TrEMBL record:
Residues annotated as catalytic: 49 (proton acceptor), 268 (proton acceptor)
GO molecular function terms listed in the Swiss-Prot or TrEMBL record: alanine racemase activity
Organism listed in the record: Rhizobium halophytocola
This protein's name: Alanine racemase
Documented EC number(s): 5.1.1.1
């Protein structure tokens, strides 16, 4: 079925926007194909919960569908309903399961609930007795202690001959707690536990791995892999060079350039004292735009992983954040740039080709996932089509 991808729209609004986000759909498609190759004979889903990690579930969903994804995971049924027109013949799994009052949205949009507790299971059986057969997935908890039936309960269910014929799980799944740490013994323990359960559900698909698990090798792939962050160019593994193509560029405009004297202080709390006469660029992005306050140049007592604050990139140079990030603005120290290199109205890259998303995350003491899902509503967006 042909699906029109919106052409890259670099509008006049985008050209002049105070904050802008460029999302490379071609890079997302490339990353999906790369992960599909790494997944070997397993199929590869697309995880598009939380508005596709803040990047837009419609555009991202359509791109992944076009690239060949036929399995999608969302957190909530409303997200599944938004996705459905863009992924017409795909299976859409809903991780939060199904609750009383949500039957209509599940059946209208042909969504597949992920059943993860005994209560959910009992409710789902009652729904089936009224409506007849409908697919579901079963989640088993193999050590995360988040959602999932205990392995022994999932095994008992597999062997329960009295379960109704309308009960038709199409997938059994679990989730790794430490997949990002290739040295962790936890993944192998979870693998062994999951194997026992998935074997008992012979004949239906099994799925264990998110982005990071794909890199743990074929034992972890089963029938379906579930990458999210790696599709969006983020780091899936700790301490390993990121092989994915970057997807997002965030930029914000310089509202004002100002000169300040040695000994003066910068931003709230006066936490940073200038060591030299300085030139400062006041930029139109702050913590309301996901440019987290913990990224500040100074005065963040809770930040432990990285002592210095974040940076921006402008005129070919990395420039440090001076003082605290505020709600709508961040101040960068541009003293080291030639005076005529930048002007008010220019854009500073917050992350993108020159500053990795995960470098911003580390400076802010968090992970790329949190940066992306905190971007907020103020960025003007352009979607680049590229090679999809
Ligand atoms: C979010 C999520 C994923 C995707 O995780 P990434 O680390 O972003 O690849 C896969 N499976 C489940 C159950 C999830 O909650």
């Amino acid at each position: 079925m042909p699906f029109a991808i919106d052409p890259a729209v670099v509008t006049e609004e985008f050209e002049s926007a105070p904050l802008r986000l460029t999302i490379d759909l071609g890079a997302i498609a490339d990353n999906w194909r790369d992960l599909a190759k790494r997944s070997g004979s397993a199929r590869t889903a697309g995880i598009v919960k939380a508005d596709a990690y803040g990047l837009g579930i419609e555009d991202v969903g359509q791109t992944l569908y076009h690239a060949g994804a036929r399995d999608f995971f969302v957190a909530l049924p409303t997200e599944g309903a938004t996705l459905r027109p863009y992924a017409p013949e795909a299976r859409i799994f809903v991780l939060a399961g199904i609750w009383a009052g949500q039957e209509q949205i599940f059946f209208d949009n042909d969504l597949v609930p992920v059943i993860s507790s005994e209560e959910q299971l009992a409710f789902w059986m009652s729904v089936l007795s009224e409506r007849g057969e409908h697919p579901c997935a079963l989640q088993v908890d193999t050590g995360f202690n988040r959602l999932g039936l205990r392995p022994e309960d999932a095994l008992a269910l597999a062997g329960d001959v009295s379960r109704p014929a309308s009960f038709a799980p199409v997938l059994v799944m679990s989730h790794l707690a430490c997949g990002d740490d290739q040295a962790s013994p936890m993944s192998h323990r979870q693998l062994e536990s999951f194997r026992t359960v998935s074997t008992a559900y012979d004949g239906i698909d099994a799925s264990l791995s998110a982005s990071s698990g794909i890199f743990l090798g074929p034992d972890y792939h089963f029938d379906l892999t579930r990458p999210g962050i790696a599709l969006y160019g983020g780091e899936a593994l700790n301490g390993v060079a990121n092989p994915m193509r970057p997807v997002v560029k965030a930029e914000a405009r310089i509202l004002m350039l100002r000169d300040a004297k040695a000994g003066e202080t910068v931003s709230y709390g006066a936490t940073q004292t200038l060591a030299r006469d300085s030139r400062l660029a006041v930029v139109s992005a702050g913590y309301a735009d996901g440019f987290l306050r913990s990224n500040s140049g100074a005065g963040v007592p809770l930040r432990q992983a990285v002592q210095q604050g974040g940076t921006g990139f402008v005129s070919g140079t990395r420039v440090p954040i001076a003082g605290r990030v505020t709600m709508d603005m961040t101040i960068f120290d541009v003293t080291d740039l030639p005076r005529d290199a930048i002007r008010a109205g220019d854009y500073v890259e917050l992350f993108g080709d020159n500053i990795a998303l995960d470098d911003v995350a580390r400076a802010a003491g968090t992970i790329g996932y949190e940066i992306l899902t905190s971007l907020g509503l103020r960025y003007e967006r352009a979607y680049l089509e590229g090679e999809i």
